[in-house]
Amino acid sequence: MAYRITDGCVKCGCCELVCPNHAIREGEGTYVINPDRCTECVGAYRSSKCAEICPVEVPGPDPGRVEGREALLHKWRSLHAGETSRSS
Ligand code: SF4
User: Fold this and answer.
1) Among residues 2, 10, 27, 62, which is most buried (max CB within 10 A)?
2) Ligand 1: which of 16, 33, 77 to mutate, most ligand atoms within 8 Å of CB?
3) How far apart are CA 60 and CA 85, in angstroms?
């Protein structure tokens, strides 16, 4: 499932820098994750980089966007045509 950033974001911006899919942008009052670009880092890494680097631990799975690993990998491939997955 895609990740989302919940209340408590301190807008440090570190998540935007580590996202392999350019899914994170600064919004009004918080950073936001584009669910159409978030693959839980599947395809690039074995763990979710935004969640790892966040100092206040606000990125987390969005229960409203449940997707299996194959769907996430398919999304990653559509975003990175011609690239080879590093996490499968
Ligand atoms: Fe980007 Fe990975 Fe966070 Fe999704 S989980 S927004 S792909 S860094």
Assistant:
1) 2
2) 33
3) 22
Number of domains, the chain: 1
pTM of the predicted protein model: 0.93
Which helix or strand (DSSP H or E) is residue 5 part of?
strand 3-5
What domain range includes position 15? 3-79
- CA dist 32 → 12, 38, 40, 63, 88 (Å): 12, 11, 14, 16, 27
Q: If pLDDT is split at 50, 70 and 90, which confidence band does 30 have? A: very high
CA distance 31 to 22: 12
Cβ of 79 below 6 Å from ligand 1:
no
- Where residue 57 sits, what CATH number does that domain have? 3.30.70.20
Joined together, the tokens standing for residue 19 give 């996202």
Q: What are phi and psi of 46, to 5 degrees?
A: -90, -5
